Amino acid sequence: MAKSSSDYFGLGRIVSLILAIIPFTSWLLGVVTRFLEGKIIAGILRIFFGWIMWILDLVFMIINGKICRFLNV
Questions:
Q1: Taking Cα atoms as reference points, which of 44, 52, 57, 47 lies closest to residue 17?
Q2: SS3 category, 69
Q3: How far apart are CA 64 and CA 59, in angstroms?
C-alpha cells in the first residue's frame, strides 16, 4: 500500500478522525490497515488488544493524522 496523507485507505484526515472515534470501525480498519501494510503480527495483536489500541489510535489520529504504530513487524 502506498504512503498516503492519512491512514484508513488514504481517506482525508477529517474522515479518518470520524472513523477513529467509532470503536468498532477503528478496530476493524486498524486491523485491515495493518494487514494491508504486510504487518501480520501487528494485525493479530490489534485483533486481541483492539480496545486499548482504539484509545491510542484516537489520540494519535488527533495529534498527527496516523494510527498508532508501536510494532512494525
A1: 57
A2: coil
A3: 9
Claim: this prediction has a pTM higher than 0.90? no
For the chain, 73 residues long, give each residue's pLDDT as a single digit of tens: 445 456 777 788 888 888 888 889 888 988 998 899 898 998 899 899 888 888 988 898 889 888 888 777 6
Give the CA dihedral 11, 12, 17, 22, nearest 10 degrees: -30
Rg (CA), the chain: 11
The CA-CA-CA angle for residues 44, 71, 19, to 5°, reads: 65
Cell numbers standing for residue 57? 489510535
